Amino acid sequence: MRINPMFCLKQKILCGIAALCTVLSVQAEDKIMRVGAEPAYAPFEFIDEETKELTGFDIELIKAIAEVEGYEIEISTMPFDALIPALLTNNVDVILSAITITEERKKRVAFSVPYYDSGLTILINEKDKDKVKSVKDLEGQKICVQIGTTGANYASTQIKDAVVSQFNTAPESYLELKAGGCVAAINDRPVNDYYLATNKSEGIISLPGTLSSESYGIAMRKTDEDMVKAVNDGYQKLKENGTLDKIYSKWFGSSK
To answer: Start and end of every Solute-binding protein family 3/N-terminal domain (predicted)?
Structure first.
């Protein structure tokens, strides 16, 4: 049987188009950024009480980075101490939740350039201000912290005979402090400051000064060089086009 040459040409064209569509589809699928975040660390990431949506400085930052780099974004929420395990088991590609860059963490993950400078501060009940005036006064006392944080590490390793009570979220540690279940709570300065600015913090004050100097970074797998480059490139673009300053001003009241 003779086959029409034009029919063969049409078939080849159709096959070529189908193959191209398949390639484009795979490429599109490859441009998804899977993000992990803890939803209880205001003002960096938290659930808005009115909209019930995840919001915060970190959330707006990573969405903006994904947009300028051409990624679709999928955000999963999980406890803070589950973030690095989720990253290392390939359940997400990027994690951020005001994660302090430390030498110990750098052994396990790759960090972006630092995007926020912070430090640890101490919250106490105002009624205790005459007997708790510095970190020295916390020796042998019960201290509330969040699991997996630098605040938890500081309380456990730097305060002599401290009784460290760990909670899944920062708000839970604040509730325990307010109820008198501990003498102090240690956490990151911007998170403590945000809590103090709310009407839920009545009777709680911050001791002056900071316990440490820290920087936050966006974490990725060390083997995912393309994602590390995309996040750093995207961050630089936001710095250059003014978007980073706008996001920073919205959440912290001044330009970075």
So the answer is: 32-255
